[in-house]
Amino acid sequence: MELAEFLEAVVTTEEGYFQLSVRNHDWKNHWYEWPTDLATIVEHASSSSDDTYFSAHLFKSKDAHKDNVLPSRTIPQDLDNADVSSLALAPTILVQTSPGRHQGFWVATTEFDDLNAHETLSKRLCYSIPLCDRSGWPPGHKFRVPGTLNKKYLNQQYPVTIIRATNKLYNVDELELLPPATSTATNVPDWFEPPADWPRQAILILEDVKDSISAKVYAEFHQDAPSQDRSASLFALETQLFRAGLSREEVYWVARHSPNDKFHADLRYNADRELAKDVLRAEITVKAVSTNIRELINDIRKRTKTLQAERRRTIYEIVLTAMQGEGDFVHVQDGRRYYIPRETGHPIEIEMASGHLHSLLDVKYALNATEPEHHYTMQSLMSYTEYLPETANVGTLSSYDYKSGTALIHTGRKDVYVVDKTGINITQNGQYNLLFPWDRIVEPFTPSLSTDIDWAQTLFDIPNILNMTPEEATCVLKVWLLFALLRDAATSRPILSFFGQPGSGKTSTARRLYAFFYGRHMDVSGATSPVNYDISTATLPFYVLDNLDTWEKWIPDRLAQSAGKSDILVRKLYTNQQTVRIKRQAMVCVTAHDPKFGRADVTDRMLILTLQRFSNMSLPFKDEGSLLNEVIANRNKLWGAVLLDLHRVLATPLPPTTDLQLRIQDFARLGEWIAIALNEQEVFRSAINSLQAAQRVFNLDEDHILITSLQQWLSKSGGSPKPKNQDDLYREVLSVVAPEDFKTFLMLYKNSSVFTKRISNLQDTLNTIMTVSFFIDKNGQRMWLIGEKDSDD
Questions:
Q1: Are 59 and 180 in contact (CB under 8 A)?
Q2: pLDDT tens column, 444-502
Q3: Distances (CA, A) of 233 to 428, 469, 748
Q4: Whether residues 632 and 522 fall in one domain
Q5: How does pLDDT run across 727-750, given as a tens digit for each residue?
Q6: 131 vs 217, 296, 645, CA distance in Å?
Q7: 532 and 653: one domain?
Q8: SS in 3 state form for 97-136?
Q9: What range defines the domain where residue 327 resides?
């Protein structure tokens, strides 16, 4: 692998400032623009006659401070003396810097959520590798450049060489399975300042503890020449001194005066630092608090005199005990099984098809999926979790307990915000008998609770609204979003609907909402299939059907189901009869130019916002990219402002009733509560009237042939209501249908039964322009009374 190819593989940020550092006693830093200056970087590094270093992470400016590090997919590590043949996760690229010393570069499939997440995983990877440099995990750390020379030794120089390069990219989930950095040692820092002097001679310190160390180690200290294996002898001295009870500084001072102190004998610079790092490695080894489970399991495998079934059972019990110590097993009320590590809060499905669980057993417990012990442990973990009581529920983004008045908001990762009338607090995923599965495509957020941003204006700036005022539209959408976070208190949910001409901003508004809910990596989509619709509405809190202008026969049924609390019944994996009942979670939104749904009950559940082209209003057409970037850039502030408003709502008493009338009565009742808390009650009530009018207009437009035919029939019959059974009514109305509409009329209302059922569905809407009623005669037949509306009405 050439240097340019290597740099392109490990520098995974698209652009920024690249740092190349040259050292000959003093440091000299050079800055380049990436990727423009790649050829210059390669030329400079290749021609350098001194020790040359680089950072695999780019910077925002020509300043190598950690806060300037840009997002990256790469975790580099200075492996020092680590055994590279036994790493739990092999690096994507392995570089040898001198005999027995290496650098590793692990490349992930996606960028890390933020710099803190990157730093946390880098530290965990570092601490999971015995003898790895504990000071090299912070983002922006410098590493040697392949193809250059390592000149830090006094009597020898070594080429820095790439010895292995693979195409392996790691899912972030795999890296999160590594043990927490705190699990390898106690009270051991990443670095300490070695003493420049000591009040007692090293030989006297050693004499105090000579009875606590081996005779060989004691003798090697007093010999004139270094041992054949200086590294092993020095490390044995350090570890035995720690076990004898000496302090870190005392161990350093004795090691400094050992004939096996290779660092001061060989290094041109940094000998004090390198010896101090070696002392820390010895302390970590001595103070390790956990058994190496991978080694323990491998040892059990070698017990050939033990029955195979007993070996498998022992391995499973070790794994189960370790997992119980680090997390919680959860059996969900819908039958699903999860394990939640306390360190990450990331739910792992306990199922045979769970790739995350396969990786956990492989990375942490050396149980590869091809081995029988792996299969046995998987099955046993499933049985163990299945036996637990079904106590937990699964949430998506938010969950609301109306009895306690508590809302939980999932940030996308470990943290869950608890909002109630008393304030806003943070808990961990899995608490309150509720777990939120993670979706890697959903970008996490950290609410900024000290913000004055107008979140509704940023998300819902729609001055081109036609069927209500912009103020009413903003109020409706503001209430809708907070209602979405409290949707568990509602039996029915409205369908947010943006209708209008091309260029009116329908999709743009939906995309802003997607950016708010999901971050940068999800986009709206059209209607594909009922299966995809079911999956999306069961796993997402908000789902958009964009440009829904083509009739699909399954859509009205699915939209009607999404407006209520409906379940999706699916067969459980690897079973014949067992089923899993999954609840629909999503608040649904549709956008369309010329919508076609054909059902009044769907229309009655819509919050219809009709938009006109910006050009028709002489308004400037807003750049969609800028609008989305504004949401992304302020996402944490927006979420903070939303949570503050949610707290205001929960701190406001819920009115027992409302006189607002809407088919989605839950939205009217809870919406007025939200509006009261936001001091927008009158605007909301006015907006509800506008929404009802929009629903009636939409229904009338959808069935304009039926309505026109009824009006023509009334005009011809005199307008006075006369009892008609469905057959007579259908025949008389059919006789006055305009010739150009006749074929369409028959297609839509092919018989009297279909015809009168449609009138029944539209009765509320029809009563706004005529009078429609019915009664049952003595023969049990439904008789219709349809007449013209009085002018007084």
A1: no
A2: 999 999 888 999 999 998 898 999 999 999 999 999 999 999 999 988 899 999 999 88
A3: 46, 82, 92
A4: yes
A5: 999 999 999 999 988 988 898 888
A6: 21, 19, 50
A7: yes
A8: EECCEEEEEEEECCCCCCHHHHHHHHHHHHHCCCCCCCCC
A9: 293-394
